[in-house]
Amino acid sequence: MKILIIEDEQALLDSILTYFTEEGNICEYATNYLTASEKIALYNYDCILLDLGLPDGEGLNLLGELKNLKKKDGVLIISARHSLDDKLAGLDLGADDYLVKPFHLSELKARVSAIVRRKNFDGHNVIVFNEIKVDVFAMLTTVKDQTITLTKKEFDLLVYFLSNKGKIVTKNAIAEHLWGDEMDIANDFDFIYTHIKNLRKKLMEAGGKDYLHSVYGIGYKFAAA
What is the tens place of the pLDDT at every residue in 174-217? Predict the structure, then answer.
């Protein structure tokens, strides 16, 4: 998952960052309203963890920005505010869930996973596309019931394509989804081609069809034809 953590309490931010990165997720963060606003305008996230009490602005207003930008990112509010009015305001503005501080990180993960599953995979853990089956949370991929071994990036790439099957995705979008802020250090997109070539090879060697189509000058499309 690609997660944006908007939190100004450093100790909590560090705990969440460590917990989710060790689970293999891509995590970015913002400790103030301005940085958070810039990130949600530039990038897309599977889930945004949103603290309401930011030093330079009201976190709820970021929900309005997401709506104006027509973004579909999942949002989980994490806040010390526990009044019913705050919860209702957040949910009415488009948040998917509301978790009151303090909380256990295991519960936070369960809430985030539920949001991503609901938004991207219609509530299911397993994605099936013809002969390809992917268990998103077990990180298990099979082709014609044969398990194949993918690297973390190859697996993330396959899930990303399956989430956007039939759509053209740009090289820039792929790089931003897989590498987040680190994509800025890359001079070109050769690394994307390498991962796609390896993913295609592994799927086809296991008996899968070639669903990865290059769209000249733009990016790629994962489709049956």
Answer: 887 777 655 554 556 777 888 899 999 999 999 999 999 988 88
Instruction: Output the 3-class SS for the chain.
Output: CEEEEECCCHHHHHHHHHHHHHCCCEEEEECCHHHHHHHHHHCCCCEEEECCEECCEECHHHHHHHHHCCCCCEEEEEECCCCHHHHHHHHHCCCCEEEECCCCHHHHHHHHHHHHHHHHHCCCCEEEECCEEEECCCCEEEECCEEECCCHHHHHHHHHHHHCCCCEEEHHHHHHHHHHHHHHHCCCCHHHHHHHHHHHHHHHHCCCCCCEEEECCCEEEECCC
Task: Give, in degrees to the nearest 5, the angle at Cα 121 between 161 and 168.
Answer: 25
Distances in whole angstroms, Cα of residue 74 to Cα of each of 35, 138, 184: 18, 21, 24
**Count of residues making up the chain:** 225
Per-residue tokens: 189:
């997109």
Q: pTM score, two decimals?
A: 0.64
Question: What gap in Å lies between CA 4 and CA 75, rounded to an integer?
Answer: 9
Tell me which amino acid residue 189 is. Answer: F
